[in-house]
Every structure is written in C-alpha cells, then in structure tokens.
Design goal:
single chain; alpha+beta; four-stranded mixed beta sheet
C-alpha cells in the first residue's frame, strides 16, 4: 500500500521483478485520483444530475436489446465486457496482466497531472466470479450481494466459502470489523442467527464453514444497513471480485485485459441529498508513482508498446503514424 517511485523503464522493470509480476494484476492511471472507481461512478455520472440514480443496469439492458441480434454467439455471455469495451459506463474497472501495458496507460498525457500511477493487486487475494457474471443477469449478480433469498445468494456463497479456505487471516479480519460494526448498531452475532435457522441449515448442508456463516450473516447485515443508511462511505469487507472472460476483440487481447467487478448498491446519498450508487472500496497492494512519462513512452515504443499495438484500431494506428512523422520534422 505504499509508493515506489519510477523514473525510467529500467527502474520499472527492476521493481516489478522484485514483486514477481506473475502474482499481480495491474492498473495504470495517468492522474492522481482519490480512489479506483469504475466509469459508472465517476463525477457527475454518480449523481445523474441529482435527479435519479445513474442507471447502470438499465443502460446495459438497452444496449443489449439494440445490438444482441448483431452479436456473434461467443459474445452473448459477456455483454458486460462488450459494453465496457465500446464505451458504455459500467461497474467494471479495467486491469491487465501485463505490467508494461499498465505502464503505457500511466504515461499517457494528462495536462492536469505530471505523474502517472500504477496499482497492483495480488491475484491470490482476489475472488474470480467470472462464472457467475456469465451465467446470470446483471441485476441478479448485483442482488447476490444484498439479497436474503438463499436461492439468489447461494452461488456466491459457495465461491466465498472456497475462497476463505485459503484466506483465513482475511476472513478473521473481515469478521472482526463486521462484528464491531454490528455491535455499534447494538446487534450481536446471535441476533443474526435468530430467525435465520432455515438459511443457516442450507449453509451447513452445502458444507459452508461455521466461521464463514458468521461472516456471511454479518456481511448481509452490514450491506443492507449501509444500503439504507449510507453516509458517504464505500462498501468494505469484501474481496476484490475479478471478471475474466475470454476476450476475442483485438484491443482487449493486446492489452491482456480483464476486469475488477466493482460491487455496488443504490440508495439516497445523505450528504448530497440525492440518489447515488455506492461502490466497493478497491484497495491495492503496491502503488508505483511514474515520473518522466514522455521519456518512458519513448522507451516503451522501442519495445513495441505504443498506440498502434495497444489500441489496434484504425484511428490510433493513424495517430501513431502521424505522431511518429511529426517528431521527425
């Protein structure tokens, strides 16, 4: 969770080798932003002119209706990724398996900021929910994190149970924080078991660990509480969820791309007195601060990392050629 300063491509490669890049996902940003937020949550979009909640799911459904008949069959399960690729604001946050691709994006020009930043997320600490995103509707996936209906949440619960078998320390930390939250609301864990006997019975039948059941009951209480009483905070105590579809479009393949699925709920923001989407807090393991961006871009170009190869569309190929000859004049 600390900064590592980078002044050259050589610096960066040396530092990335130290952390073992194969164990991390990367995100490059060309500005110093307060948090990692998907496009649907940024700036005025989150408030949607202060009149209604930014309609992430509604827009996605309309996009699907408009283009579904034109889509190849292989895209049908990954409409969310397809929408993100074509510029529709979603709850997805682009990340990459390539540290060099992340460096390229961190070095893109931004007149409002002199440095770029790269955020690193340990792969072993993330939760892959690709199968859920692909096999259920967007509304269904979102509701899994907030719904008390066992049929709705069971697929996610089983994934979480497997996840926590290998992440006991994270489970203990989350449970401790959630217990403190509940106690501040005068709720004890035994209170959450009361009236949920049938719910808990199904957990046990599915082989869910007792400590995970405690966590799940506390989590559902926490999520539904902040959904109704949220006061300018973000959603915490959830692992980073990864959506990793097989991307067939060239740009995504060149960028070694995948996504963080940023969990969200909708409510009335008490600070701004208007509807808002409340998004999950995305915490990183390492953060690189990138200086000398223009020089690093030149170095990246020498090894084939540039607009032409990263974006691979006609417009960016043309821009790359134009810029190359402009620099020679």
């Amino acid at each position: 969770m600390f900064d590592i300063e980078i002044n050259s491509l050589t610096d960066y490669i040396e530092e990335v080798e130290k952390i073992d890049s194969n164990k991390y996902y990367f995100r490059g940003e060309n500005g110093n932003y307060a948090s990692r937020s998907a496009t649907a949550y940024r700036g005025s979009q989150n408030k949607f002119n202060g009149k209604q909640i930014y309609p992430v799911t509604t827009m996605l459904n309309e996009f699907h209706r408009e283009i579904a008949h034109k889509l190849p069959q292989e895209y049908s399960k990954d409409i969310l990724a397809f929408a993100q690729h074509h510029g529709l604001p979603t709850n997805l946050l682009d990340i990459t398996k390539s540290p060099l691709v992340a460096l390229f994006f961190a070095c893109l020009e931004n007149k409002n900021c002199d440095e770029g930043f790269i955020y690193c997320y340990k792969i072993d600490d993330t939760l892959d929910i690709t199968s859920i995103v692909q096999n259920f509707s967007h509304e269904y996936v979102t509701s899994m994190f907030f719904d008390n209906n066992i049929k709705t949440v069971l697929p996610l619960i089983l994934l979480l149970n497997d996840y926590f078998k290998n992440h006991c320390e994270i489970l203990d930390l989350y449970t401790e924080n959630l217990t403190n939250f509940a106690q501040n609301k005068n709720i004890r864990i035994n209170d959450l078991y009361t009236g949920n006997d049938a719910y808990v019975k199904i957990f046990v039948e599915q082989g869910v660990q007792v400590k995970v059941i405690d966590y799940l009951l506390l989590l559902l209480f926490y999520l539904n509480t902040i959904k109704n009483e949220q006061n300018g905070e973000t959603i915490k105590f959830l692992p980073i969820c990864i959506y990793n579809p097989i991307l067939t479009f060239e740009r995504a393949r060149n960028q070694h791309g995948l996504f963080i699925y940023q969990v969200f709920c909708s409510n009335n923001d008490e600070i701004y007195n208007c509807p808002a989407n409340v998004e999950q807090e995305i915490l990183h393991n390492y953060k690189f601060k990138i200086n000398n961006r223009a020089e690093i871009l030149k170095s990246l170009d020498l090894i084939g990392i540039n607009k032409k190869t990263i974006f691979a569309d006609y417009d960016n190929i043309a821009r790359y050629i134009k810029d190359k000859y402009k620099s020679q004049i």
